[in-house]
Amino acid sequence: MTVETVAGKPVLEARDLVKTYGRVVGLDGVGLQLFPGEILAVVGDNGAGKSTLIKCLTGAEIPTSGELFINGSPVSFKRPQDARDAGLETVYQTLAVSPTLDVASNLFLGREIRRKGFAGTMLRALDVKGMRERARAELAELGISTLQDVTVPVENLSGGQRQAVAVARAAAFGSKIVVLDEPTAALGVRESNQVLQLIRTLRDRGTAVILISHNMPQVFEVADRIHIQRLGKCAGTITPQSHSMTDAVAIMTGAQTL
């Protein structure tokens, strides 16, 4: 197996991850490295172990064996909140946004800011103005120009705008790593391009991004490296410069090996 190397220290590293479900092997000794300011795509056919790998990396599943490291330090995630506390945020395909809440409220969902003084400590009143100001600043920093009004309910937004809200929420709280699960699924060409630009912006800010996608043209457009899963194993890690889309599909299907 040929693995393209990247200079520097990985922000996230998995070594020999194994996940079994009874006699079914979901992951079979998978290794992965993710570096700061990098977009690492994870691709593979259905049943290749992509979802299981991501769940083990983000605390949704506990590996049967293997090791995880954040910035070189060993970690053990028992639940998704453990991963968030370590600076790893995940945006699932279902988005998990609250349609009836506005943009700012969704960005701070579960992390609401309370007002100072008696109103916040005793009456538990929220600092709505402060959250909206911070939401505008975060969206501007990410270059999201399609969300000018943070008071609009999310249910009134387009699919691409909802995806932007979910990604912005993941990036808004000092996350070292953002995992995106099929972020352009069910989006049109224009909205997909906006989401891809947002992913590039995250990378340019120094955030490490894991992108799970079936869309090979998009993967080759934005990814720095491509981790290919096959039958529960890592079949190889390539780059858009070293291999073509045809090569990637051949490796995925077993027609070509590294």
Automatic annotation (TrEMBL):
Domain ABC transporter: 12-256
GO MF term (any one): ATP hydrolysis activity
InterPro entries (UniProt xref): AAA+_ATPase (IPR003593), ABC_carbohydrate_import_ATPase (IPR050107), ABC_transporter-like_ATP-bd (IPR003439), ABC_transporter-like_CS (IPR017871), P-loop_NTPase (IPR027417)
PROSITE patterns in the record: ABC_TRANSPORTER_1, ABC_TRANSPORTER_2
Keyword list, A-Z: ATP-binding, Nucleotide-binding
Keyword Transferase attached: no
UniProt cross-references to Pfam families, sorted A to Z: ABC_tran (PF00005)
Gene3D superfamilies, A to Z: P-loop containing nucleotide triphosphate hydrolases
Name used for this protein in its record: Mannose ABC transporter ATP-binding protein /fructose ABC transporter ATP-binding protein /ribose ABC transporter ATP-binding protein
Source species of the chain: Micromonospora olivasterospora
Highest classification ranks of the organism: Bacteria, Bacillati, Actinomycetota, Actinomycetes, Micromonosporales
